[in-house]
Amino acid sequence: MDKAKRADKIATGVLYAISALIVAILAFLLLYILIRGLPHVSWEFLTSPSKAYQKGGGIGIQLFNSIYLLLITMIISLPISLGAGIYLSEYAKKNWVTNVIRTSIEILSSLPSVVVGLFGFLIFVIQFGYGFSILSGALALTLFNLPLLTRNIEESLKAIHYTQREAGLALGLSQWETVTKIVVPDALPGILTGVILSSGRIFGEAAALIYTAGQSAPALDFTNFNPLSVSSPLSIFRQAETLAVHIWKINTEGTMPDGTAVSAGASAVLILAVLLFNFGARAIGKRLHRKMTSA
């Protein structure tokens, strides 16, 4: 018995040490990026356009492109993921068809983003003729985001106790009414958390967008709201270099005199945005859960 207790304590200590090491590495990386980048971040840096061959450029257009591309991607992927999650959780029977669907989702979720980008380049950019554009990037990111978001929605729906469904059916509601009026609202905190976390993943993606959304950030006319005009910020057919792609481009081309400072500042902004997505997801999820349990 003493040997068993001693082995248990040793194993527990090793696990705690590994956990502490992982947290320390993560904290070091975050602090290193923030300490190097935050001194270069200012309002002018966040709002001014980038410059290729002179100092003083910012990340204004790239930051807007990242946010706009994220919005378009979620508009496309969220309804599809929600429908797929509801089908797999509430309607799909356990047979070879659903097994194939779940296996396909697992395979898609494990694909490297550069493979998704090459697929998007061949299909959306070349075959469909969308060219390097926000639309091509959003469709590629939809393929990249769909498995994770579908799985999250399915698990959130499955977490709702079966008695909730039985209560709805006992009240005379159809299965669809039970799902839409009882199950989905109860699962909303988990669904919303998954949506925000996947948004952070999309916001920081670069490899898939290099081949689809393009590597240039044309000047935008923020007074032009015509979505068919390539100078309009609302156009989905224009090239859109995002913040993550901009960081990659700065460090590979070397055409910017203050590239190190701009790259450090842009990296800090990107890290802060991803952290905001993650902490915001937890805070919103907990608040919604608290409201629903207290109601």
Q: What's the structural blueprint in terms of helices and strands?
A:
Blueprint: H1 2-37, H2 43-47, H3 60-91, H4 96-109, H5 113-127, H6 134-158, H7 162-170, H8 175-203, H9 207-210, H10 243-253, H11 259-294
Helix pairs in contact: 1-11, 3-6, 3-8, 4-6, 5-6, 6-8, 7-8, 8-11, 10-11
Structure description:
With 295 residues, this protein is mainly alpha-helical. It has a single domain (41-294), classed as Orthogonal Bundle (MetI-like fold). It is 73% helix and 0% strand. The chain has 11 helices and no strands. The protein has helices at 2-37, 43-47, 60-91, 96-109, 113-127, 134-158, 162-170, 175-203, 207-210, 243-253, 259-294. Helix 3 (60-91) packs antiparallel against helix 8 (175-203), helix 5 packs across helix 6 (134-158) and helix 10 runs antiparallel to helix 11. The chain is globular and about 70 Å long. It starts with a helix and ends with a helix. The relative contact order is 0.14. The model has no long low-confidence stretch (mean pLDDT 85).
